[in-house]
Each structure stands twice: as C-alpha cells, then as structure tokens.
Write a structure and sequence with these properties.
Elements: H1 2-19, E1 27-29, H2 34-51, H3 55-76, H4 84-105, H5 110-119, H6 130-136, E2 142-144
Antiparallel strand pairs: 1-2
Helix pairs in contact: 1-3, 1-4, 2-3, 2-4, 3-4, 4-5
C-alpha cells in the first residue's frame, strides 16, 4: 500500500532526524497522554481484525496511528523548537506511537518493522509467544532510546 509506505516512511525520517537533536537528553514517555487512549483502541481493533483474518482492517488501525503522528508533527512544529529538552518533550508521545506502528507492522513488513523498532531501542525476541507481544502493546511510560536513522525503511 503506497499510502502506508509513504506515511510511515516520511514520519520515521522526519521524527528520527528531529530526535537526533535531543542527543544527551532523555526522552521520557508521559504516563498519561491522549495518544495512550488511541493506542489502546487501536490495539483492540487490530487484534479483533487479525483474529477474523481481516488484514485490511488491521492495517487501517496502523494507518490511524500514522495519521495521528503526522498530524501531531504538523501541529506541534517541533522543528521550530530551539531547546533540546522542549523538543524531547514534544517528540516523546510521537516516538511512542511510532513504536506501536512498528509493532503493528511486524506481521506485514517484518524487515521494515524491525528497522523502526531497532532505532527506538526495542529488542525483538528470536521467537514470539503471544504473551510477549501483548506486553509490548501497552503504552509504556519511561525512556525511549533513539538511534540515528542510517538506513531507509523501504528498499
């Protein structure tokens, strides 16, 4: 899906480039944020869609997350912020949404998803148990590690 590819590719490139400017600053994911509710609903719908083998509806949930993150970047205009601590605060929920996007993409584009997750410091197990995946679905307050985006998502 070209829309999905362009949406996640542009989002990933823009946000990770901005996140590099926070070097030395800890990016803390807020415990409560409007995006937390969005991710909970997205995961519920995503799981239901996959359980019913409705892949298009599952990907629609991922598209909703991508759209939210892109709107957030456009609204917040993080490139106008001069202080790395302010930039980190604005980027934190967006980076957490990108983590969820990467997780939801795993069954569809594993290499792209793995690239996204690697840059966000997510360690993927060699094999998955459903309980492990469910734990990763949660909105995770705390610290996110961002590695520079040295590779393209889609080749």
């Amino acid at each position: 899906n070209a829309e999905l590819k362009n949406g996640v590719g542009n989002l990933f490139a823009r946000v990770l480039k901005l996140a590099e400017k926070t070097e030395g600053f800890i990016i803390n994911i807020p415990e409560k944020h409007e995006a937390a509710d969005l991710t909970r609903q997205s995961w519920a719908n995503y799981r239901d869609a996959l359980a019913n083998f409705n892949l298009a509806v599952a990907l629609e949930q991922t598209q909703r997350l991508i759209a939210w993150a892109n709107r957030s970047v456009d609204t917040e205009k993080p490139w106008t912020l001069n202080r790395p601590d302010e930039l980190a605060k604005v980027l934190a929920p967006i980076l957490e949404i990108i983590r969820h996007i990467g997780l939801q993409l795993l069954p569809f584009t594993p290499r792209t998803a793995a690239t996204i997750l690697k840059h966000l410091g997510v360690k993927l197990p060699a094999s998955w148990l459903p309980s492990q995946f469910t734990a990763l679905e949660q909105w995770t307050p705390g610290v996110i590690l961002v590695a520079p985006a040295s590779e393209h998502l889609f080749s």
